Structures are given as structure tokens and as C-alpha cells.
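Ex. 9. Protein: Spermidine synthase.
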Amino acid sequence: MNGIREGWFSEVNALWPGQCMSLEVEEVLLHEKSPFQDVMMLKTKHHGNALILDGVIQVTESDEFSYHEIGSNVPLNAHPNPEKVLIIGGGDGGMAREVCRNPAVKSVTQCEIDELVVNACKKYLPNLAVGFDDPKMNLIIGDGFDFMGKHKGEFDVIITDSSDPFGPAKVLFEKPYYQLMMEALRPGGIIASQGECLWLHLDLIRDMFKFCREIFPVVDYTTVSVPTYPSGQIGFMLCSLNPETNFRKPVRTFTDEEIETLGLKYYNTEMHAASFVLPHFAKKVLEGKAQK
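Predicted C-alpha cells for Spermidine synthase:
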């Protein structure tokens, strides 16, 4: 059972059997139950403040930037004109921060179902939640399924920043959700959706690849290192309605000066390319040449 014992929080979950990440805790800043989930904010000894949802680490201040910079800039820079962006989830604000930073983006709508998470992050993770105050941002507290069903054909890019595939988030890893995202895109639109861990969930990723290829002409997977996530790796499913899209060769790149101006710490042109390099065992499975 997840909890704090002898000054350590341990993340125990059946999705990563036989292993867990532990964080040394200085203080419990918040622990409340919303209508949707258990919400905990911890002040850790070495990783800054950390958001925990239903006993699972969502972000720590020490390494959140890698996930958010790859999850935003890879899809945005693959689209020739990503003016209008929708974020589903992402209640910590980190994805909104990065999307709003991208100079090609003109407006951002975010649907987050749990207002407690947003308010907690505004208070305890202000470096992430800064995106909520950006003039480009329109934050909606509500259900992303319902919103997309009412806003078809509106967005250039949709980014899903979700928790792991159990409980309410399980449906975000299934074909009907991807179909719904596709219908909310403008012609040539792109999606990026949290795509789990190659080391732990390769069967799930393979199955997602299969149904995504039934919906979109272009499908790919990008990977990023996040030390406090299970096995230290997570990825994003990338899909495009434009058959000419090549996610591996961005249509827009940042100079070194632009990277410094934007405040990026992980993403650059080389890292964009490197994020698509997969270990051989995973490449074979995702290319359909092997079974896990």
C-alpha cells in the first residue's frame, strides 16, 4: 500500500510489479480526496515538491521539465502552423507552460477535470502552474470527452497529459478516445498522448500502435527520460492526419539562442531526433517483427 513510512513515500502499483520509486519526505503539504482521486503534495528532501495522485508520482520539481518539453515541442514543431492547441488533463500546469512558450502557438484551451489538482499546483508548484496565467490560456474545469464531443474540427494540435491506465484514466488509452481526438482536429492536425513505458508496458504500446494506424495515416512514438517515473522512461504516442508529416524531422527548429530565451532545459534539435531512437527489442515489437 502506498504511503509514508519512516520519512519515505513509496510508490507501489501493480502496473510496475516488483519495483517502486521512493522519495524521502520532509513535509506533507497537502493530502485531500477530490471527487475523482486522492491528491497529495509532498515536500521532498532531494526532488523539490512532488504531486502524487492515487499513490502515483505525477511530477517532481527536479525532473518535470524533460517530460513537458518533449511532450509539447515534438508535436508542435512537427506541425507547420500549430496556432490552436488543446490540452486534456495536465492539471499541474507544466504542459500548459511549455505550450504557451512556443512562439507558433496563438491560443491554448485546457480541460482538466479536477479543480483540486489545479489549485494545489498553483500553491505548491508555481513554477509549473505559471502557464495557467498566460494570456494565451483558457482553462476549463471539466471533462475532456464532453468538451471534444462539442468541439469537432477545431484544433491544430491536441496533447493528452494523463495519468497511468488504471481507474478513470484507462479509457484514455483506448481506441474510442483516439477517434474522439481525431474528430476534434482540423485537417492535417496532430495529437500527442502520454504513451507509457517501453520497459513495462510494451504490449499496451504495441496495441495502441495498431489501433492508431487504423485511424491516422502517420503514427510514431517518442521517448523521454524522467528519473522519478517507473523505470525512468516514458513516451508519447504521436499521430497525424497529414500523410506528409515526419515527426522525426521537425518543420520548425530552435536556435541555441531561442532555446535559452524560451528557458528550455531538455529539448533541442538533437534531443528531438534522439527521442525517436528505440532499443532494438522495442523497435522490433512496434514494427510488428516480434512479439514481446
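Check your answer against this statement. The longest helix spans residues 202-215.
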